[in-house]
What does this fold into?
Amino acid sequence: MNVTVIVLLGIVGVVLLIVGIAVLVKVLVRRLSSSSQSAIAQQFADSSVVKSDPMANFFGLGSKGGAQVRGNGALVLTDSELWFRRIGSSTLLRIPLQDIDGADVTGSHAGKTVGRSLLRVHFRTEAAADSAAWLVENPESWVHAIESDKMS
It folds into this structure.
């Protein structure tokens, strides 16, 4: 075998490996999204869900700083709360709408950025004011929905 054939076989092998990894990632994301959709359906009656994103990427709480690990999960806005559960975790973040002081769009949160706009929510807890942020599709529509829900 000459060098050209070996190089071409190597290139084909690398391309096939990359395609295989891409397909595997797509299948895993689809399964995780489906699992998150099921969690939303089990937790909420369809009529109470104003907005949802089964693969929202959580950027953490402002009070905990940049040492937090980001993670995807189900984000749901109902007429009474903003609810989040990270995939693979049973820990919930529930923010009653009456405790939300505002929502906006930002480029970073808790020292983290991805070069895209994030939904950020400012809220009160028993201890102090805090904030949380998510990478969601169309964060401006989330801000509008949260502000509209708070007014009704």
Remarks:
- The radius of gyration is 20 Å.
- The chain has two helices and seven strands.
- The mean pLDDT is 88.
